[in-house]
Write a structure and sequence with these properties.
alpha/beta, Rossmann fold, Arc Repressor Mutant, subunit A, 2 domains, 53% helix, Sig_transdc_resp-reg_receiver
Length: 219
């Protein structure tokens, strides 16, 4: 796995590089600027990029803008975005623009090495990884009288883990239930949210988008 790291904090940038190299992963370049990141992507053709949301010169959304541009140039590039705190709009846009090979983690997650590496590999393998804290904060902001109120507590747990990017096997392991039980809960979620099967819509992504969009709209 070839990795480019774009992070303007030199301590975190080099700490990430050391961590990943200790795991025998190939960090081909590190950079502290959006332009340097785009140059590195063009030069080294990485499999995945780890990108800070806020980078110079204004420290607003330069990292996100650079990641979007990098994906435009190389649609197969996996991107794992790091942020110091929950950025609701980006968490929603992450899925709305297509969830494959994309991740969004809070920087504090890096200190939980096993969780961070699991998310990194999941994204690199074509999946999605959304920080559990993002999911929790968005759920906490929901208000009564929404379709989500039809879900049982266990169904809400399943949907929250789906939003983190976990597949059915991982959801079953996290909740200590069978995969058959997870399948049943997901069918109930689709039914209660009115998500009928179609050729054009991924119901799993649609279910997650429903509650993320609803939480942001009602926050």
């Amino acid at each position: 796995m070839r990795i480019v790291i774009a992070e303007d904090d030199p301590l975190l940038r080099e700490g990430l590089a050391l961590l990943l190299r200790a795991e025998s992963l190939d960090v081909v370049a590190t950079t502290g600027t959006p332009d340097g990141f785009l140059d590195a992507v063009g030069t080294y053709a990485p499999d995945i990029a780890i990108v800070d949301v806020r980078m110079p010169p204004t420290h607003t959304d330069e990292g996100i803008a650079a990641a979007v541009e990098a994906r435009r140039r190389r649609p197969d590039l996996a991107v794992l975005v790091l942020s110091a705190y929950v950025e609701q709009a980006f968490a929603t846009d992450l899925l709305a623009d297509g969830s494959a090979r994309l991740g969004y983690l809070l920087k504090e997650r890096v200190g939980r090495v096993e969780e961070f590496l699991t998310a990194l590999h999941r994204v690199a393998d074509g999946g999605t990884a959304i920080d559990p804290e993002v999911v929790a904060q968005l759920f906490a902001r929901t208000r009564p009288d929404t379709r989500l109120d039809r879900l049982s507590p266990r169904e809400r747990d399943v949907l929250a883990l789906m939003a983190e990017g976990l597949g059915n096997t991982a959801v079953a392991e996290r909740l200590v239930v069978t995969e058959g039980a997870v399948h049943k809960h997901i069918r109930n979620i689709f039914a209660k949210l009115g998500l009928a099967p179609t050729d054009r819509t991924d119901r799993r992504v649609a279910a997650v988008l429903h509650y993320l969009d609803d939480a942001q709209r009602r926050a």
